Amino acid sequence: MTPSIQPVSDMRDESPQRPSPPVAAGINDIEGFLLLQAELEAARREAERFTDRLEWLTTSQREDVARHYIGERRKVTQMMLTAVARRSGQPGGEYESRYAALRTRLRKVTALVACSAVLWCGCLTAWVTWAAGD
Q1: What's the pLDDT tens digit per position in 38-57?
Q2: Domain segments of the chain as ranges
Q3: Which of 3, 68, 70, 104 is 20 to 30 Å from 33 by CA-CA measure?
């Protein structure tokens, strides 16, 4: 008898648990570190390509230009990541308030439709009763 093979979707936990706040903060720190390191490595490669085109520079001049380029790129990257992190916290409140307003509106419309249906059924029943009485 061969074992049955389950699809991957059946084997996954459908309700993954969120990590605790300290674990989530640690994961965010690691992700930020790796992102910064990848950006610095890209800056190093770009600086090397740039200085390679400047054939008249001496080795120490090339290293100096590359160091300045990497330093400036690091500042720009940190400013960009700081701005993104700051903005990422802002929309949540706005979307939550919009969602709450839409949810309230939906509840009101649902209640209105339900009341209208009950009233319509009551009127129809009264009319049928009245018409049958004649």
Answers
A1: 888 998 999 999 998 988 88
A2: 21-133
A3: 68
What is the spatial distance between Cα 78 and Cα 73, in angstroms, rounded to a whole number? 9
Task: Report whether 43 contacts 73 (CB < 8 A).
Answer: yes
Biggest distance spanned by C-alpha atoms of the chain: 111
124, amino acid identity: L
Number of H helices, E strands in the chain: 3, 0
CA dihedral of residues 89, 91, 92, 93 (deg, nearest 10): 100
Task: Please give the pLDDT value at position 27.
Answer: 86
Work out the angle at residue 89's Cα, subtended by the Cα atoms of residues 83 and 90, and round it to the nearest 5 degrees: 90
Q: What is the pLDDT of residues 78-109, one digit of tens each?
A: 888 788 877 776 666 677 788 888 999 999 99
Return the sign of the alpha-carbon dihedral for residues 31, 32, 33, 37. Answer: positive
Q: Is the pLDDT confidence value at 77 over 90? A: no
Pick from 47, 39, 45, 92: which is nearest to 68 by CA?
47
